[in-house]
Write a structure and sequence with these properties.
The protein is α+β, with helices and mostly antiparallel strands and 91 residues long. It is built from 4 helices and 2 strands; from the N terminus they run ααααββ. Helix 1 crosses helix 2 and helix 3 packs across helix 4. The mean pLDDT is 93.
């Protein structure tokens, strides 16, 4: 097993664990949170690129997550690209 596959499996396990804790989260929402907590991706464009999903989909899930009171706060948005930068805020 390669190091990349081990890291991928660990990432997916953390996503599944987070979804068990909060069943309201979609897989992508949980992945956004896990990626932010691990400093893997702190903006919507990087997240979309790393996971191979459309940026529009990442934005939709990020915005839904923020609206439902998730642990992320958007700190900056690029007007032209809509790229959104966020931070994790745990109580």
């Amino acid at each position: 097993m390669t190091e990349d596959s081990v890291e991928t499996e660990r990432f997916l396990a953390l996503v599944a664990e987070l979804q068990e804790k909060d069943p309201r989260l979609t897989s992508l929402q949980a992945a956004i949170i896990v990626a932010a907590e691990a400093n893997i991706a702190l903006d919507s464009r990087s997240f979309a690129r790393l996971l191979g999903v459309a940026h529009a989909l990442a934005l939709r899930e990020l915005n839904a997550l923020v609206e439902m009171g998730g642990p992320l706060r958007i700190v900056k948005r690029e007007t032209r690209t809509l790229r959104s930068f966020y931070v994790v805020e745990h109580p």
